[in-house]
Amino acid sequence: MKLRLLLGDQLNLKHSWFDKQEDNTFYVLYELHQETHYVIHHIQKIVAFFSAMRAFASDLQKQGHQVLYFDINSPASKKSLEDNIKDLIAEKGFTKFEYQLPDEYRLDQQLKSISNHIDIPSESFDTEHFLTTREDLKSFFEGKKQLIMEFFYRDMRKKFDLLMEQGKPLGGQWNFDKNNRKKWKGNPAIPPPFRTKNQGNQEVYKSITQAGIKSIGTYDAENYLFPANRTEALEQLDYFCKHLLVHFGDYQDAMHTAQRNLFHSRISFALNTKILHPMEVMKVVIDHYHKNPEAIALSQVEGFVRQILGWREYMRGIYWREMPDYKSRNQLENFNQLPDFFWTGKTKMNCLKESITDSLETAYAHHIQRLMITGNFALLIQCHPDEVDDWYLGIYADAIEWVQLPNTRGMSQWADGGIVATKPYVSSGAYIHKMSNYCEGCQYDRSKRTGENACPFNSLYWNFLDDKKEHFQKNNRMAMMLRLLEKIPALEKEEIKNRALSVIENPDAF
Fold it and tell me: Where would I find the H helices in 363-478?
C-alpha cells in the first residue's frame, strides 16, 4: 500500500499520478504549524494556501482518489512532517512512501531525511510543472562569467517555439521591454480586478484564527483575490486575456495611488501553487493575441511571456544552482533592521505608505512596487538581507522561497554580488516620480537632496553609492553614477550623508 505526500504548492490536478484511481494508494495533505511558523505570513497568504489545498483535496476525492487531509486544528498540525509520516505508516501499514520533489531547499532536505529514517522504501517524482529541470540553467551557462537572463530567454523561446516565425522572433525582435515603461495617468480605463466566487475562505479564516496562528496583514472579502481551484484560476486567466492584456505591457511598470492592480494578471498564486501550468497559461495568452491581432500589440504579449518563460524559469534555475550558500550571501555587508513601518504602513513617505499598505491589505504588490519602492528603500538604508527575505517571503501570497529568494537577495538587494543583476536596482526619487503619482501626494520634495523636506530617497541614493563605491569600482554599469558622485562638492556631499544618516538611524521618523 502506497502513501503519497502532496505539499501546499503541489496542487496540480493534471499530474500523471492522478491519471487513474488506485485502491492501494492514499494521498495525504497537511496544514502544519511547521509551515506557518518558519516566517510570519500574511493572513491572506495562509487563507489562500489552505483554501487551495482543501479545494484540491475535494477535487481529488471527486475523481475517486483516496485522500487523507489534516487541517490546522487537528492534532497532527503541531507535529513535524516526519513524525506525521511515521505515524501514518505505523497506523495504516503502508509499504511505500512517495513524494513529488519540493521546490524549496528546506523541504527537499527534510524529505530526504524522512526517507532515510523510515523503514519502508521511498521514491521521489518530478512535479511535472516547470519547463526546465533543476540543472538546466547551470548547464546552459556552463563556463560563462555572467548569467544573462536574456540569452536564456531567447533559447527558451526557440526551444518551445513560442512567439516564433520560421526560426526567428515574431515581430523581428526578441524583447519589447522599452515599450513597457509608460506612466499611467488615468487613461486608458482599468477594469475592476477579477474576483473569485469561493465561499470557503471565511471558514478557512476562522479555522486559522481558532488555531492561534500568528500572522501579518488584514483579511476581508473586499481585498481577497486569490483563486482556490482550476476553475477559478482559468476564469482569472480568461479575464486577463479579455480585459487586461490589451494594455498589460505598456503599463506593467506603472504605479498609481488609485489603482492597485492596473493591468496585471495576478495569476502568480495559481502558477506558484501549480494549479495552472506555465505552458497552458502562455498558450492561452498567445492564442488570444493571434485571435485579436488588430486589438492587441505584440509587445503586450511578449512582456507577459518573458515574465513566465524567461524570468520565472531563470529564477528557479538560479535558486537550485546556488543553494544552499545563496541564502547566506551578503556581498554588500548590510546589517541594519527593517523599519517598523514595514509592518504597519505608517510612514510619511507616500510611495512606501502606498506600497506597504497595498501589501498589508492584499498580500500582493506588483514587481516594480516590490523592486523599486520597498526593495529600493531597504537596500538604500542597508538592511540585512535576512530581514528583507523574511518580510518578502511572509507578506506576499505568491512568495515561495525558490522564486522569492533570488528575486529579493539577488535582484533587489544585490546581496549575491551580481549573479542575478549586473548592477543594484537603486534609484532616487526621480524614478519613482517617472513611473507613478506617489510623489504628488507626498510631503517630501522629490527635487531636493538635503533639507527637512527633501525626499529621503535622494540623499540615501547618493550616500549608498558613496558607502559602497569600492564594491562597484569595476562595474561598468555603475561607472557613470560614480563619476557624478565624484563631482558633488565636498560640502554638499557632507550634507547629503548627514541627511541620509538621519534616515538610516531612525527611518520610522520619516
Answer: 367-368, 375-380, 385-395, 401-405, 429-435, 456-467
Mean pLDDT per 10-residue run, the chain (510 residues)? 98 97 95 96 98 98 97 96 96 97 98 97 98 96 92 97 96 89 93 82 94 95 91 97 95 94 95 98 97 94 96 98 97 98 98 97 96 98 98 98 98 96 95 96 95 97 97 94 96 97 97
| Assigned CATH topology for domain 136-322 | 1.25.40
Dihedral (CA of 359, 363, 366, 372) sign = positive
Tell me the Ramachandran region of residue 17: left when phi exceeds 0, alpha when psi lies from -120 to 50, beta otherwise.
alpha
Kindly state the DSSP code that residue 444 receives in the 8-state scheme.
S
Amino acid of residue 114: I
Domain boundaries, the chain: 2-125, 136-322, 340-509
Grid cell digits, residue 390: 523574511
Task: Determine the Cα–Cα distance for residues 102 and 110; give it in Å rounded to an integer.
Answer: 10
CATH number 3.40.50.620 is the correct assignment for the domain at 2-125: yes
pTM beyond cutoff 0.85: yes
Alpha-carbon distance of 292 to 47, in angstroms, equals 37
